[in-house]
Amino acid sequence: MSENRQPALPARQTLVRVVLALSGWAALASTALPGGSPLRWAPVLLFVCFGPGLSLLYPQAGLLRPGARLEAAALAAPLGLSLAVVTATVLFLVEGFSGTAFLVSLAALTTLASALPGLPLPAATRGAVERARTAPVRRR
């Protein structure tokens, strides 16, 4: 065995990765339900808004500081919606857009992204919360 192995992921991070990887496929499966049912559109809406963004941002190496957790939560929806717009635009340009093709593309991207480490967050790397606490306070 090699001695340069990466440490095993904690069970919680593995669970987060698996749930994110399966979320798109669950949303795709929910489209088989009768039309107009909240059980059909709610998973799709939640997945398109948050699934791709969360899979790119989570899990982070180590524990996130409070500022980094807030940053990741605030970035998940815009990042996920941006990926959804890019995916839809590409599918329209190749004249292959359909609801199924859109969800399959996003689900595959989410599955791939959840297998990789999360994108680095500025607040996680620079210690924004700790620096704010140690900064000198000016008094008048």
Summarize the structure.
The chain is mostly helical.
End-to-end CA span: 62 Å
Q: What is the element string, with H for helices and E for strands?
A: HHHHHH
Largest sheet: none
Spans of at least 5 consecutive residues with low confidence: none
Number of E-type strands? 0
Q: What is the beta-strand fraction?
A: under 5%
The overall pLDDT average reads: 82
Q: What structural category do the secondary elements indicate? A: mainly alpha
Number of H/I helices: 6
Keywords:
140 residues, mainly alpha, 6 helices
Task: Give the topology, please.
Elements: H1 11-30, H2 38-57, H3 66-93, H4 99-114, H5 122-126, H6 128-134
Fold and architecture overview:
With 140 residues, this protein is an all-alpha fold. The chain has six helices and no strands. Helix 1 packs antiparallel against helix 2. The termini are far apart. The relative contact order is 0.16. The mean pLDDT is 82.
